[in-house]
From TrEMBL:
The lineage of its organism: Bacteria, Bacillati, Actinomycetota, Actinomycetes, Kitasatosporales. It comes from Streptomyces natalensis ATCC 27448. This is 3-demethylubiquinone-9 3-methyltransferase. GO terms for molecular function: methyltransferase activity. InterPro entries: Glyas_Bleomycin-R_OHBP_Dase, Glyas_Fos-R_dOase_dom, PhnB-like. Pfam families: Glyoxalase (PF00903). GO terms for biological process: methylation. Keywords: Methyltransferase, Transferase, Ubiquinone.
Length: 138
């Protein structure tokens, strides 16, 4: 397995729903492991909570997520952003449309001073996304 860099998102009980939403948006294969699927009742009440999940897409994206363990403070969206970038405008605009639906847009998806089309939104789960569409190199 090659090394990879990808975001890991923590949730406060809605990791399964959020990761299924991202699968709908991005496609790919989603593996979800709950505390209970490992035969663990620890911590108590966490049998159905997500211990680890990983979404891998045909485009090469990898996104991981889990529910916060007890005693861990959850601060959605204020400590990171997930970036989608490339030169396939139709694909990236499709992701943008789905991610921004039901969320809020802080930077509209439009041409920026550096020449790319860029936008930033927060999805309905409180996660900040950046979409950058560069011109195809010829």
């Amino acid at each position: 397995m090659v090394s990879r860099l990808n975001p890991y998102i923590s949730f406060s009980g809605e990791a399964k729903q959020a990761m299924e939403f991202y699968k709908e948006v991005l496609g790919g294969d989603l593996a979800v492991h709950t505390y209970g699927s490992f035969g663990s009742e620890r911590p108590p009440g966490y049998a159905d909570k997500v211990m680890h999940s990983m979404l891998e897409t045909a485009s090469g994206f990898t996104l991981m997520g889990a529910d916060n363990p007890p005693g861990t403070e959850h601060k959605p969206g204020n400590n990171f952003a997930v970036s989608l970038s490339g030169d396939d405008s139709d694909e990236l605009r499709g992701y943008w449309d789905k991610l921004s639906d039901g969320g809020s847009v802080s930077v509209p998806l439009e041409k920026q001073m550096w020449g790319d089309v860029f936008g930033m939104c927060t999805d309905k789960f409180g996660i900040t996304w950046m979409v950058n569409i560069s011109e195809r190199q010829t």
